[in-house]
Amino acid sequence: MAGAMSGRPERSGGACRRRVVRAIVLLLLGVAGAASVAGGAARSGASSRGVAPPAGVGEFTGPATCDSSSCHGSSRPRDGRIAQDEFATWFRDDAHRQAYDVLHAPLGQAMGRRLGIDVTTAAECLACHASPQQVATAGVGLGAGFAANPVVEFGVSCEACHGASSGWYGAHFQRGFDRAAAVASHGLIDTKEATTLAGKCLECHLGDATRFVDHRLIAAGHPELRFELGSYLLAMGSHWRQRGSGSRDWFLRAALAGPLVAVERQLRQVAREAGGATAAVDWSNRDCAACHHDLDDAGWDRVRDWRLEHGMAVPVGLAQLDGSRFVAALAVARSLGGAEPFARSLAQVEQLAHAMPFDGAALAEAALAAAEQSRERATALTAEGQVAVVADAVIAELRAAVDAIAGGGLPAAEHSAQLLHSLQAAFAPETWQLAPDGAAADVRAQLLAPLHSTREFAPADFATAWRSLGR
Predict the structure, then answer these.
(1) For residue 47, what are the contacts with CB-CB under 8 A and spacing of at least 6?
(2) 296 and 379 assigned to the same domain
(3) C-alpha–C-alpha distance, residues 377 and 397, integer Å
(4) What is the C-alpha to C-alpha distance for residues 434 and 234, in angstroms, rounded to an integer?
(5) 332, 338, 343, 346 alpha-carbon torsion, rounded to 10°
(6) Domain assignment present for 45
(7) What is the extent of the structural domain holding 393?
(8) Could you tell me which of 16, 25, 105, 376 has the fewest CB atoms within 10 Å of its CB?
(9) Total-model pTM
(10) How many angstroms separate the CA atoms of 261 and 63, rounded?
(11) What is the CA radius of gyration of the chain?
């Protein structure tokens, strides 16, 4: 199941046994980790320029390769380019570490009963609720060995984001390490590059061709996949240094890339569904509230009437395409320039998604064209030197589009408000702790805090609150 479910592990005998086993495994892996790092260093040769990575590129080695106290497993941060406590921070503070545990929690177990599967071993769940140590290179073909591997107990660990480390871990701490070559040829994921980072996160937090949360999983209880990259980075236990303006630019670029990459991935999903042999529609790409509301639901009536009053389409009797990310993606694209073809393509996708009779081939073609345009805008962002200027322009674009944001209902309001918060976030010196006051604090209090449910969402109140910011 792509995306992590909320909840804590059940306080049962099984949970206790798992914690004991995990502690023992961690102890053993710590010893093995020190040995494996030492072995990797020996294989990598002397610390001269052009350090060669070990053989076996593309193999997953597990978190043991990272947890040595002399590498990333220090119990406290140290001075230097890296803090060296990254493993401990992940293990203690990062929700990714709990991704497997939630499969044992009440919601995960209830989903298993409804679906008739064991969620703790099912491939479709472990594909995103554990790291892919035993996943075939193509991203499919999870075997029974995957479920038996004790590393799944650690949830989503280092290599799920940073890449299979067999080709680079033994060299990456050596002087002269060629990082660019490791990224190009040896399996290292470049999380410093914004679109790469966003794409890696969205593999699970939105889905791809091999793993996604479809309507069946949502009906069984899986939360909707609502993802704004900046907010997720802020919610994680940060295991990266805050280095002033450089770090600020990296964070802004990641937040700006998020909507563009997400819309690209979503549109490719739409194209796969519409252009398939059956031209099927998976309802997970539609607005849930369009169908799942009482006919006398005041919240739905408010959104529908708001859309009508502001000249926005209301597909009568049809499940509306989930466009909650579209306004934010357009705001970023317009701030980069050359966005009007993209805007027209998105409008065409929405029109075809609601057309009767349904033309799957036409929708697939339009969705792929819009996806490519979103990718091009993300590429333009990568080349943009003045990212802070772009961020300010996006803030202005979002303000101008607040009526359209409100017309997207709660999901669009939440996504765009989270993006605004990320772009206005201010941090304490040398940390990633949010400042307690300022523009971002106002966004938290006036926009995000009142967002509770689709039933309670009031577009007019939301738009008024947004326009009042900064006055």
Answers:
(1) 174, 175, 176
(2) yes
(3) 16
(4) 8
(5) -90
(6) yes
(7) 245-468
(8) 16
(9) 0.83
(10) 28
(11) 23
